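Why does residue order matter? Because the sequence determines the fold. Keep that principle in mind as you read this record.
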Amino acid sequence: MKKSLYKKLLENLSTDPFTVTFWDGTVKQYNQGVPEFHIAFHRPLSTKQLTEDPMLAFAEGYMDKSIEVDGDLEYIIESIFNQQGSILDQPLALSALNKFKSTGKKQSKDNVARHYDLGNDFYKLWLDETMNYSCAYFKSPDDSLYQAQKNKTHHILKKLNLQPGQKLLDIGSGWGYLLIEAAKEYGVEALGVTLSEEQYKQTKRRIETEGLQGQVEVKVMDYRELIHEGTTFDRIVSVGMLEHVGHANIPTFMEHTNRLLKDNGVALLHCITGLVEVEGNAFLNKYIFPGGQIPSVRELVDGMTQNDLRIFDMESLRLHYTITLRHWKRNFEENLHTISQQFDERFIRMWRLYLNACAANFTCGISDLHQFLVTKGPNNELPMTRDYLYE
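Structure:
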């Protein structure tokens, strides 16, 4: 394996000083100064893969222990993200959205199962008691993860301006915490739909434990099937689901949101966003979120306006997601003994890479997290300012 390819990749990897040990024992420093981190290649990586997709090659090299790093993994990835033209700074812009096919219902369910059906016991180890697997809301940096996830849920519910007796739909309802809180605190009738069997089972248990049968319901169902039931809702919420829809399906999602909302109804869409439309990250698509694609703000807004969904409020929670991910990765590391009894070392290194890379991603502003509050047609009943959220 010639080192010329590595030299080209590593010379532009980061502006921070770092050292590299190659498989033959030679050591080289890049950039002047005291090294901030060290990378060791225990064996050469595939030349073909390095040429075609260096980001995926490095990720798999780390997963397979062909590469080891000495230093804070999140900081190292952040350092590489910040270097324009590095192996991690190569998003593939979409030349035309129509080159993507819409994801069918079976494929959507299979994609969800790959990630969310790893087992409730696994997620309980590093999420908090609410089992919220999305960006939390920190009123203070000292908030616990549990408190911040409660904050997030009630931040959303207040924005929706829920009234007793209203019907609420949660598209991609996760493990059901928001449904339960909406029913208990606001007296609404709530329906959640998910494609995850594991999330469905946990939500059913929560509904029964809280004695909310008849007021809260959960179904294993693709949201696209709901319009056939002829039911409409006063409020719709979707948290962390639009990232799984895919660029080609954004118009479909917005159309169904419009058709499922009553006139003057309100919806809150909470999702990761990008500045521009890009293809899905190869590592995440292959190992973490098959079929996942981060929507851009402009394609979301276009989909909304094409379906008479009027933006009432838009809020960025990007920095909250960095803190959320740091809690998750700390919990993950603190529970390695138990996790290692369920999964092998390659899985553990894969998830460690995923959590650290995501934290660096939000710190660097590669992705954002937005909450869009929209209404079907002009709604004059929502509070005029956000002041009511902080009372």
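The mean pLDDT is 90.
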